[in-house]
Design brief:
Aspartate Aminotransferase, domain 1; Ornithine Decarboxylase, Chain A, domain 4; 3 domains; 7-stranded mixed beta sheet; 4-stranded antiparallel beta sheet; binds pyridoxal-5'-phosphate
């Protein structure tokens, strides 16, 4: 075994936590439950008592996330080595805080930042915090699936040339549906044009560990990459990582920003899950992922044989452009059943006990991971077969063939910086009256979390129509208010949404 392989079996943070718990020292420090002795009995009865003994705080034995010098430092170094990065940081508020940190580490107030519009709202939140000025470019859309796919390398290069002052470029790859941009080509273009590339790889912490998956952003050489270890591999919810590669971004600047953004009481359980998830991926990731890939591909073949259903395949994605597909994601179009994705998701959950990752207008999205078993996929396929049997024959209703086109979001007019709009004096008005006004909020159809309006942008009639249509068909829209501007949606069945706009 090579030194690297041997080292990757180590779990320095977890080991130190276990050793400290087993030492049974008397604790006069936080957390107040004191190794579980003060925890609610109901909680302890359900989860057992051991977990509380490793719910620790910053102590010499287990190091300090804010300024790691011991076992956290070592665990982060092992993570960097495993992912092929130069430096890695543990995150305890998900990729959300990582996206804030990427933007704050690279863009100053007034700086232009180029953003592929299918960005998660946390990228926009980073822009609001930093005072940067976003310049958007659009991903391609697939009209048949009704989803944003991704950005081509040519589109990224064109956007960089069109915005020579935007020194920082941000992409999401793979997207929620597993559709990955051509990272090697994009990194090469960005560096040729002397840009810093930030990649939201929330959905790609596993890519590095199996050659059949699209290349990871870190392997391609992206300057900063954030991954939700918790979404796809073995991290616990909220546990993510930020990786630095190369010298274009100063790692100590990232460290300082994270010291400002992250909790001074980070969860050791979350951090241990990162230490262990890294070890698991580095030592047996390829084998575990091979199984997940096989299960997903088998389910894809079976779903594609069900009349009325269509499951996205990698060969299709490759014909669109220079995209790749993470085949562990199953994007299943239910359009031909005459159902929305939202309806299919509700039926699968209510009648078959099958919970999908998300639904959009025409599709449901299923994540197959190292935690799935053949029986789980069998149940999914069985549920889909039953749904299709019931709905396909009678699907003479296709209520959604007339989707209003997604507004031309790259043409949206930025009337002021997102920061000014977010903090400026604002008041609520009905969405139907918003055309021509400046939004002071991020409005996102969620999932998949693509901002339809960002603070500082003018509402245009297309945006209003699109939001109204999506709302009427069951999409969850974040950033809109209840009638009269209240936080709650109100009593009416489909109350008209209100939005916050800058005062004229
Ligand atoms: C593309 C993308 N980026 C960032 C996030 C936020 O990640 P997290 O939930 O780890 O904070 C999400 C969450 O869904 C996402 O889909």
């Amino acid at each position: 075994m090579t030194d690297i392989a041997e080292r990757q079996y180590r779990t320095p943070l977890f080991d130190a936590m276990v050793a400290l718990a087993e030492a049974r020292k008397v604790s006069f420090h936080t957390p107040g439950h004191k190794s579980g002795k003060g925890i609610s009995t109901r909680f302890r009865k359900f989860v057992g008592s051991k977990i509380f003994t490793i719910d620790l705080t910053t102590l010499d034995e287990v190091d300090c996330l804010q300024k790691p010098v011991g076992v956290i430092k070592e665990a982060q170094e092992l993570a960097a080595e495993a992912h092929g990065a130069d430096r890695s940081f543990f995150l305890v508020n998900g990729t959300t805080v990582g996206n804030h940190a990427m933007v704050l580490s690279t863009a100053r107030p007034g700086d232009e930042i180029l953003i592929a519009r299918n960005a998660h709202k946390s990228i926009l939140a980073g822009v609001i915090q930093s005072g940067a000025l976003p310049r958007f470019f659009l991903p391609r859309f697939d009209a048949d699936l009704g989803i944003a796919v991704n950005v081509t390398a040519a589109a990224v290069e064109m956007a960089m040339r069109a915005h020579p002052n935007a020194r920082v470029v941000t992409l999401t790859s793979p997207n929620y549906y597993g559709i990955a941009a051509d990272m090697p080509a994009i990194v090469a273009a960005a560096h040729r044009l002397d840009r810093v590339l930030l990649v939201d790889e929330a959905h790609g912490p596993h890519l590095h560990f199996h050659p059949a998956l699209p290349p990871s952003a870190v392997d391609a050489g992206a300057d900063l990459t954030v991954q939700s270890t918790h979404k796809i591999v073995g991290g616990m919810t909220q546990a993510s990582m930020l990786h630095v590669k190369g010298k274009r971004v100063d790692g100590s600047r990232v460290a300082r920003v994270l010291q400002m953004l992250q909790s001074t009481s980070p969860s050791y359980i979350l951090m241990a899950s990162l230490d262990l998830a890294r070890m698991q991926m580095a030592t047996e990731g390829r084998k575990l992922l091979a199984k997940a890939i096989d299960l997903a591909e088998e389910a894809r073949r079976r779903i594609n044989r069900i009349p009325g259903l269509r499951c996205l395949e990698e060969r299709e994605v490759r014909t669109w452009a220079d995209f790749r597909l993470d085949v562990t994601k199953l994007t299943i179009s239910v359009k031909q059943l005459g159902l929305t994705g939202y309806e299919a998701s509700t039926l699968l959950n209510g009648e078959f006990g099958i919970q999908v990752e998300m639904a959009d207008l025409w599709n449901i999205l299923v994540i197959v991971s190292i935690g799935d078993r053949r029986d789980d996929l069998g149940r999914l396929v069985g549920g889909l077969e039953a749904l299709a049997r019931r709905h396909f024959a009678s699907a003479n209703r296709h209520p959604l063939t007339e989707i209003p086109p997604m507004p031309r979001l790259e043409d949206a007019t930025l009337a002021c910086s997102p920061r000014e709009a977010y903090f400026g004096p604002s008041s609520p008005i009905p969405l139907s009256e918003a055309a021509g006004r400046i939004s002071s909020d991020i409005i996102t159809i969620y999932p998949p979390g693509i901002p339809v309006v960002v603070p500082g942008e003018l509402f245009v009639p297309d945006t209003v129509a699109y939001l109204e249509y999506m709302g009427a068909h069951g999409a969850r829209i974040d950033g809109v208010l209840g009638p009269g501007g209240g936080e709650e949606p109100g009593g009416a069945e489909r109350p008209e949404p209100w939005v916050k706009v800058l005062e004229a």
